[in-house]
Design a protein that fits this description.
The complex is a heterodimer. By secondary structure, chain A is α+β, with helices and mostly antiparallel strands. Chain A is built from eight helices and nine strands. In chain A, strand 4 and strand 5 form a beta hairpin. The radius of gyration of chain A is 21 Å and the shape is globular. The chains are: A alpha+beta, B mainly alpha.
């Protein structure tokens, strides 16, 4: 489908409203990743329709919501200051001249960020594993270089057939697929990437899922059918 | 308008602090925004546990992505509510995908608790979009607001408004484009 201005305009509105669904929604998300023009159109609607949200009656969420957030963000160090990845050099590097920013809090963050060359190690990849005849993606994939984590969140994925498991692979540009382990269905699967697997993934940006015996491939290479292959996009 | 501006600046300051991983600022941001966010998610999903999960997910995202906020993305509050809204819609889709039979969203709401689109929402929407919603036809406006506030699918809208899906789709499409022309004036 061609990205005409009219189409971008119409689809962006429906994307933000939420009425754009299924495959069309995923395709439009790819457009967003590829084009700032598309993102700007989306931001227009997020801003405009966002006003509708601010008029809704408040409802205080139960305390468990906040404690859940704390648990998820700081599982080990509740209440103490942890040395998280984003606090190290890379994180600080994004925010030089901090005191200046703080005194002029309403300055546009984007401008500050644009003045930096995009740091190579803050790259984020994102994508979806889809199946042709299904409206929802099976899994949504996101990767953050800063956190060194690849995450696959199941949306419409169903359990593998009895006696089988799904195994996730990086498909490098050359050579054998590299296993990222067996994925349980029904919960988000997270893998921490080491330098080598990160490098493979950022150059090929291709993931595959194969059907393997329970516990994963006995040989270290895919033995069952390759069910899905997905490309990731830079966000 | 003064109060709104003050709040805008305060939220902006908090977001900047959160981008620096300031936890105290994050907690303050949560205290300031979570009520409105939870209200919105609850309205959208009509399910408390889903709305709670969405708020939780949204704040985890806000913590990680505060540095990506910039003013082209609207006011800080709209930006945060948008994150929560997308998350709620995602969770609603996942649940629907898991539902095997007719336990539809619509039946959920037609238990006499409230109609699909209550009057207060209709007027709130009108005020916030600087009168532009008034320029739409009634079905155009209702289908847009029902999609926004209740996350209705085309099929659900078609049922709620007793009209064919094709008609509903064109109400939304034409309504949104008319809205944009008005907002750009």
């Amino acid at each position: 489908m061609k990205k005409t201005p009219e189409r971008i305009e119409a689809l962006a509105a429906e994307y933000v409203l939420g009425s754009l669904r299924g495959h069309a929604r995923r395709r439009f998300e790819r457009w967003m990743m590829e084009s700032v023009r598309v993102r700007q159109e989306v931001w227009f609607w997020e801003e405009k329709l966002g006003h509708l949200g601010s008029r809704i009656e408040e409802e205080i969420p139960p305390a468990s919501v906040w404690s859940g957030i704390e648990r998820r963000l700081w599982p080990q160090n509740r209440g103490t200051e942890p040395a998280t990845a984003a606090n190290d050099g890379a994180g600080r590097w994004l925010w030089p001249g901090w005191s200046l920013v703080a005194t002029a809090a309403t300055l546009v963050l984007a401008v500050i960020l644009l003045q930096q060359p995009a740091p190579r190690d803050d790259q984020r990849l994102s994508g979806a594993i889809v199946q042709a005849e299904m409206t929802d993606p099976l899994w949504l994939v996101s990767e953050s270089a800063l956190e060194r984590q690849l995450k696959l969140r199941p949306v419409a994925a169903t359990a593998a057939e009895q006696g089988k498991d799904y195994e996730l692979w990086i498909v490098p540009e050359n050579g054998q697929p590299v296993s990222l382990g067996v994925m349980p269905v029904g919960e988000t699967y997270q893998v921490t990437l080491d330098d080598k697997t990160r490098a493979l993934l950022s150059s090929s940006r291709t993931l595959a899922i194969s059907l393997e015996p329970v516990g994963g491939s006995p040989t270290g290479a895919p033995t069952g059918p390759i069910l899905h292959v997905a490309r990731l996009y830079e966000l | 308008m003064m109060a709104v501006d003050v709040e805008h600046d305060e939220l902006m300051g908090l977001l900047i602090a959160v981008a620096r991983e300031d936890r105290a600022a994050f907690q303050r941001l949560y205290e300031k925004v979570s009520g409105r966010m939870f209200g919105l998610c609850l309205k959208l999903a009509s399910q408390r546990d889903l709305a709670e999960e969405a708020v939780q997910d949204a704040f985890v995202q806000i913590w990680h992505n505060a540095g990506e906020y910039h003013n082209e993305r609207g006011a800080p509050l709209s930006w945060m509510l948008t994150i929560a809204r997308y998350r709620t819609l995602d969770l609603m889709r996942v649940r629907k995908a898991k539902q095997t039979s007719g336990d539809s969203h619509l039946e959920h709401m037609e238990d006499g608790r409230e109609g699909p689109l209550d009057v207060s929402l209709r007027s709130a929407g009108a005020a916030e979009l600087t009168g532009c919603l008034e320029e739409l036809s009634e079905p155009q406006r209702d289908s847009i607001l029902l999609s926004y506030y209740r996350g209705f699918t085309h099929d659900e809208l078609s049922e709620a408004l007793s009209s064919p899906v094709g008609t509903v789709k064109s109400w939304i499409r034409r309504g949104l484009m008319a809205l944009k022309r008005c907002l750009e004036r």
